[in-house]
Amino acid sequence: MTLQDVYNTATQECSNASCLILDTNEFFNSQITSNGTVYSSTIHSCVIDGAFLSLFMALEHFLEESFICYMMGEPGINGNSFAKFVSPQNETQARDMLKGINRFTDFTNRDTIVRLANNFFDGGGTYSYLNSISADFEEMKKIRNAISHISVESSRAFQGLVRSKLGVIPPNITTSTFLNSTVPNTTSTFFIHYRDIVEYTIGYISNPN
User: Fold this and answer.
1) Cα–Cα distance for residue pair 107/113, rounded to 1 Å
2) What is the pLDDT of residues 135-176, one digit of tens each?
3) Residue 41 and residue 136: Cα distance in Å, rounded?
4) 3-class secondary-structure state, position 137
5) What is the rounded distance in angstroms from the CA atom of residue 209 to the CA atom of residue 202?
6) Rounded to two decimals, what is the model's pTM?
7) With helix as H, strand as E and coil as C, how does 57-78 read?
8) CA distances from 124 to 37, 82, 111, 116 (A)
9) What is the tally of helices (H) and strands (E) in the chain?
């Protein structure tokens, strides 16, 4: 798989997630029914949460696959490249280098990605950009954990995020209602806010300076 393929897949997944949000809001606001089944708030919430998970997974998968492409010596989509300190013979060897003694490489951990980038690429390559979105990355991870993990810790982390963003914790706040709410002093929802960050990150990493 080439870097262009990796980029295309990631941007398509972002687009698909955005379409899910538009569709589910349209269906819910229009009170769609079919054979007596109402498009309920439960369905609405599940689709929003699912769309966000897809968005986060698109970023996670992109980071890993683009990392492999750069390790194999591919230039960016714009033709620019940066020096690398490793020369794997194939993708399998590249993945083994990433894993080291671990079972897998956690591409949801920004610190891990940046550390590996600094080890494998001159100046961390294009992945140094992740330092500029460290807060946004952690926010997305908190939301992802709150959706996929049923734990007191993930719930507290999410509520802390909501308080920091909205000033208060609204009654009965959920990940889906938070994602579908408007960012203060803007006209964008939090889902759109994070989607834009993901899309820009994918584009930036794919096109080194």
Assistant:
1) 6
2) 999 999 999 999 998 889 999 999 999 999 999 999 999 999
3) 27
4) helix
5) 14
6) 0.95
7) HHHHHHHHHHHHHHHCCCCCCC
8) 52, 9, 12, 8
9) 8, 2
